[in-house]
Write a sequence for this structure.
């Protein structure tokens, strides 16, 4: 049984619905640790063949209800059982099952929603859409799953519904830092899997941003299997649509065959080569960050170079953060170093907290060190909250320091509130007004965490490639 929509739908639904469901369930700590594994398990479950273990097959076949399935041993076994269970239900029965989702713990509800509404969309998508309208805020988070599953089996009618009901999908693409994909891009991507020419014809009939995103999605989908055909298709585009299509091709091709991608990039108009090269290098970094670092010297455009360096540091620091840090500091530009420091410290602190702190201690005062400290504090796993607070107080920028101190204090108060309050009261680096707020457990007025999630303004993920 093939369900090609499951993994992308999981990303859309989990990314968009996490905060909403967590607020309703009250079990956010458990769900946060489970969401990534849920999406991964869904992809594994959807690709299982008849060679699944006899225990899983027996459990899935014998399941008579959602309650039975919840008792199935193993997360993958439960997901496969849910797939089998929903696969055999009529649209009316799926509606009855949808009403039961509210009673599930949040992490189970997310995955069950993906599987149920994905299946419902294959059998009666309009009924599934109508039901989502009765779900309040939760309905906005299942609509992308419904639309994607619908488009995977009937893209023409999914596209027609999208055109007639645009307001239903206006929230799509707003989760996960805007990387979830608009309704038009989701339909185009699914359509292009089977008929890229028809998908492109539809994308070209759209207007504005929908047109650009849809055409880019078609080209990106084709580029993942046949970059040369994707190039031929993108040649007929113009303006921003062509620029983004070329970036997508460069990203996909760079991951498959960087040398071929680089040769093609040299044939592009001069004003498009730098951005495309940055995309290709960013993809190369995923498999060979050291090789990617050597290619960056050929980029002269500052924005493109900054993006390529961030992607390279992100990939490299997952394998060898010390080597990534040494290379990053050799680039010489504080602006570039500060920008990539978020990726470096987020990855490094999760792998080796003490080594990350040792690196910070050797850095001179300034914006780059401030960025390193702020990101470290947001993602640290240190068992010494006082040392974390001391680091926060060492930030030179006043507003950034106050935000970092608030984050460090909040972390400390969760483990030892009395010690945290005593330290805060004696600190000379925290204003009296801030002390009062912290002592009362109120972070209001700090303006949010500049370092929360990686980018200025709390943009999760920092600077990611457009081609992804």
């Amino acid at each position: 049984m093939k369900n090609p929509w499951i993994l992308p739908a999981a990303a859309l639904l989990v990314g968009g619905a996490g905060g909403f469901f967590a607020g309703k369930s009250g079990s956010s700590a458990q769900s946060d640790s489970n969401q990534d594994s849920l999406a991964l398990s869904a992809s594994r479950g959807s690709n299982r063949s008849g060679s699944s273990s006899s225990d899983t097959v027996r459990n899935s076949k014998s399941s008579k209800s959602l309650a039975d399935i919840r008792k199935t041993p193993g997360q993958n076994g439960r997901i496969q059982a849910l797939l089998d269970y929903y696969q055999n239900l009529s649209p009316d029965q799926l509606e009855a099952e949808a009403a039961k989702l509210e009673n599930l713990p949040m992490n189970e509800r997310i995955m069950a929603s993906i599987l149920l509404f994905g299946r419902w969309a294959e059998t009666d998508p309009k009924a599934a859409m109508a039901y989502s309208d009765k779900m309040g805020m939760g309905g906005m988070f299942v609509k992308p799953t419904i639309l994607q599953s619908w488009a995977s089996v009937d893209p023409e009618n999914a596209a027609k519904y999208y055109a007639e009901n645009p307001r239903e999908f206006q929230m799509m693409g707003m989760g996960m830092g805007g990387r979830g994909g608009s309704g038009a891009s989701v339909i185009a991507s699914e359509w292009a899997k089977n008929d890229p020419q028809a998908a492109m014809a539809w994308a070209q009939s759209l207007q504005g941003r929908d047109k650009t995103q849809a055409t880019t999605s078609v080209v990106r989908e084709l580029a993942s299997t046949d970059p040369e055909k994707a190039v031929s298709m993108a040649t007929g585009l113009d303006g921003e649509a062509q620029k983004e299509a070329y970036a997508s091709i460069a990203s996909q091709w760079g991951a498959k065959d960087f040398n071929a991608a680089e040769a093609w990039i040299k044939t592009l108009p001069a004003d498009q080569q730098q951005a495309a090269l940055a995309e290709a290098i960013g993809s190369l970094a995923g498999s060979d960050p050291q090789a990617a670092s050597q290619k960056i010297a050929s980029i002269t455009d500052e924005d493109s170079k900054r993006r390529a360096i961030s992607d390279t540091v992100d990939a490299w620091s997952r394998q060898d953060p010390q080597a990534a840090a040494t290379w990053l500091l050799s680039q010489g530009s504080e602006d570039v170093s500060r920008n990539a420091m978020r990726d470096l410290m987020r990855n490094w602190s999760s792998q080796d907290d003490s080594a990350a702190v040792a690196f910070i201690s050797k850095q001179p005062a300034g914006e780059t060190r401030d960025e390193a400290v702020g990101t470290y504090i947001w993602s640290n796993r240190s068992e010494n909250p006082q040392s974390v607070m001391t680091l926060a107080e060492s930030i030179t920028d006043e507003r950034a320091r106050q935000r970092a101190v608030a984050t460090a204090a909040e972390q400390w108060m969760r483990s030892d509130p009395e010690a945290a309050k005593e330290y805060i009261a004696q600190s000379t680096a925290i204003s009296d007004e801030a002390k009062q707020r912290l002592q009362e457990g109120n972070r209001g007025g700090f303006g949010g965490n500049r370092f929360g999630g990686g980018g200025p303004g709390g943009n999760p993920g920092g600077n990611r490639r457009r081609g992804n």
In short: Residues 289 and 315 are 6 Å apart (CA to CA). Residues 9-62, 175-179, 443-468 have pLDDT under 50 and may be disordered. The radius of gyration is 24 Å. DSSP finds 27 helices and no strands in the chain.
